[in-house]
Specification:
Helices cover 16% and strands 55% of the residues. The chain has helices at residues 21-28, 39-48, 55-68, 72-89, and strands at residues 14-15, 18-19, 96-112, 115-116, 120-135, 140-164, 167-194, 197-225, 228-239, 252-263, 268-277, 287-302. Strand 6 (140-164) and strand 7 (167-194) form a beta hairpin.
């Protein structure tokens, strides 16, 4: 890869004053499965060209990078560069900060050998977040920040069997799972003025980092034969372990977040959101666990209305 010498490198990406996206894509080789871009150059481009980019082309450039990357490791590195670039972009726009808090319904989808595990029900968790909102014009906004999200699920099962006449076995079990993540989003919002405030529709990738979790449950078996009943019980309460072995879960969870919010003129806002995890969190063969949450938050924006988790 050739070296771009500042400041002349900016102009080579323009043909007849129009940004040549094909040249950008070819240099960073975003269509290949094995990406080795010069991250320093990418950082310089996103910051130095921010004042010259047409906003829709900037969004297209970021979007194309993410949809063509096949490596989660590269997605994490690119996302880090985008977040650093966003900080530099604040010199071109009025930065705003926001806080949010709310509840979520966690849907933990588990499969074994491609077969969905039945009986898993959503649990009620919570989310708190801090936002950094960077206007990209009158109708567009870039947002990043930090989210702490607690995801919960539960399952209750009951079964009765009769191995042979006069012998009955009744079993009941109850299990609960709680996972806690720090999410780092990178979203683009489109704002529509309405009723003294504005509706906001946003979407973008996020990186979730598992920091803790807990599994607990109990099991009860009642065996009845000849009028006599024998009861056995067991329970467990364990912390979730992260790592690379079959008995641990993967720490990194890459996903996509979508939001629909309404910001009031007094800087308060209400938002519906969904975080859709795309990564399989299981290390063991044939097992699959993915997380999806839906929720509602209330928030406040400092320095102007707008923003969301």
């Amino acid at each position: 890869m050739f070296v771009l010498n500042k400041p002349s490198y900016v102009n080579i990406f323009y043909v007849d004053n129009e940004l040549n996206l094909n040249l950008l894509f070819n240099i960073f080789d975003v269509k290949s499965s094995f990406l080795k871009p010069n991250f320093t150059v990418l950082f310089q481009l996103l910051t130095d060209l921010s004042g010259r980019f047409h906003k829709t082309l900037l969004i297209k450039f970021i979007y194309q990078i993410f949809i063509n990357l096949k490596s989660t490791r590269m997605k994490i590195r690119i996302l880090s560069v985008l977040l650093l670039s966003a900080v530099c972009l604040t010199s071109h726009a009025q930065i705003q900060f926001g806080i949010n808090a709310g509840v979520n319904s966690g849907n933990i989808k588990s499969k074994y050998d491609s077969k969905k595990e039945e009986g898993i029900k959503p649990g009620i968790g919570f989310i708190v977040s801090g936002d950094v909102n960077i206007p990209l014009g009158e109708s567009l906004m870039f947002q990043t920040g930090l989210q702490f999200e607690s995801v919960k699920s539960k399952s209750d099962e009951e079964s009765t069997s009769t191995p042979y006449p006069g012998f009955t076995i009744k079993t009941t079990s109850s299990d609960k799972l709680s996972l806690n993540f720090i999410n780092i989003p990178a979203k683009i919002y489109f704002k529509i003025p309405a009723g003294g405030g504005s509706f906001m529709i946003g979407a973008g990738p996020y990186l979730g980092i598992g920091i803790s979790g807990k599994q607990k449950g109990n099991y009860k078996s009642e065996s009845t034969y000849g009028g006599n009943t024998t009861v056995s019980e067991d329970s467990y309460d364990e912390k979730v372990k992260y790592g690379s072995s079959d008995t641990t879960m993967k720490r990194m969870n890459f996903g996509v977040g979508v939001n629909l919010a309404y910001a009031l003129a007094n800087n308060m806002k209400i938002s519906l959101f969904s975080n859709i995890g795309l990564s399989n969190l299981q290390n063991a063969d044939k097992y699959s666990t993915k997380i999806m949450t839906f929720g509602l938050t209330l928030g406040y924006v400092f320095g102007g209305s707008g923003g969301d988790e």
